[in-house]
UniProtKB/TrEMBL annotation:
The keyword Aminoacyl-tRNA synthetase does not apply. ATP binds at G8, I9, S10, G11, S12, G13, K14, S15. Keywords: ATP-binding, GTP-binding, Nucleotide-binding. InterPro entries: P-loop_NTPase, RapZ-like, RapZ-like_N, RapZ_C. This is RNase adapter RapZ. Residues 170-286 form the RapZ C-terminal domain. GTP binds at D57, S58, R59, S60. Residues 1-162 form the RapZ-like N-terminal domain. Gene3D superfamilies: P-loop containing nucleotide triphosphate hydrolases.
Length: 287
């Protein structure tokens, strides 16, 4: 079994790391009490789960001392186990907590343990957390996220676990402006400026996938110019969206009724990009 143990200082990016690992196909568990670690892994192994990621943090104060022994036991049993420990400077952590306006997750636990009604300061919580997690810090690879963007951290985590970037799915979606712009669209292109096949009685009952409508629009120089402009825009910016770790990029093409011009343009663009990209096609107003 491949096991990833993720720990570190609160605010250093454990949630970002866990999300990346989950997207890579790992069975993920957040904030597991260390006393349940061996039992959980035995259960998952019996169920045929091969890749597991578990986040353990300082809230399990009383049980953290058992972690080094548990890690040694799992490695001795033949499991492939890696520990990732995320940290950051105190100044960075204070800034991040200030931005989110959240309290430190350890503050309530420490307050209860010390039997005091006085809240602990953020600086005190960070210092105590470093002390509690120090034994785990030296059991694995330490990543300092002080000056890392979330996107850079995602890429570093992927490198750590040997996961390649999943291919971006490029979705082309036609729709009718008279119904409204769908909420899932990243870019909207308006093709209502093109001649409308709707006004040709022979073409009205057809869609942009029918050859007669295709021939009508192919004969319009404006349609070809607009297609070229949209295609070049996507080709120029698509690499940037891939670099940004996007899973989907949805291109919306709208016309009045979502039946002729937008459908034609979606089909034409999709046919071009299918040569190099993973493409999905959706038509909202046709079946």
């Amino acid at each position: 079994m491949q096991i990833l143990l993720i720990s570190g200082i609160s605010g250093s990016g454990k949630s970002v790391a866990l999300n990346v690992i989950e997207d890579a196909g790992f069975y993920c568990v957040d904030n597991l009490p260390p006393s349940l670690l061996i039992e959980l892994l035995s259960t998952l192994q019996a169920e045929g789960v091969n890749n597991v990621a578990i986040a353990i943090d300082s809230r399990s104060i009383q049980q953290l001392q058992s972690m080094p022994a548990n890690i040694q036991k799992l490695r001795a049993a033949g499991h492939e186990l890696k520990v990732l420990f995320l940290t950051a400077s105190s100044e960075t952590l204070i800034a991040r907590f200030s931005e989110t306006r959240r309290s430190h997750p350890l503050s309530h636990h420490l307050q209860q343990q010390q039997f005091t009604c006085q809240p602990l300061s953020l600086t005190e919580c960070i210092a105590k957390e470093r002390e509690l997690l120090e034994p785990l810090q030296f059991l694995g690879h330490v990543i300092d996220t002080s000056y890392l963007s979330a996107n850079t951290l995602r890429n570093w985590i992927k490198d750590e676990i040997g996961v390649e970037q999943a291919p971006l799915i490029l979705m082309f979606e036609s729709f009718a402006f008279k119904v409204g712009v769908p909420l899932d669209i990243d870019f909207v292109f308006d093709v209502r400026i093109l001649p409308n096949p709707h006004y040709d009685h022979a073409l009205r009952p057809l869609t942009g996938r029918d050859q007669a409508v295709i021939d009508f629009l192919e004969a319009q120089p404006m349609a070809q110019d607009l297609y070229t402009d949209i295609r070049r825009f996507i080709e120029k910016w698509l690499p940037s969206f891939k670099h940004d770790n996007r899973s989907y990029l949805t291109i919306g093409i709208g016309c009045t009724g979502g039946q002729h011009r937008s459908v034609y343009m979606v089909e034409k663009l999709a046919k071009h990009f299918q040569q190099t990209e993973k493409v999905l096609i959706r038509h909202r107003q046709t079946h």
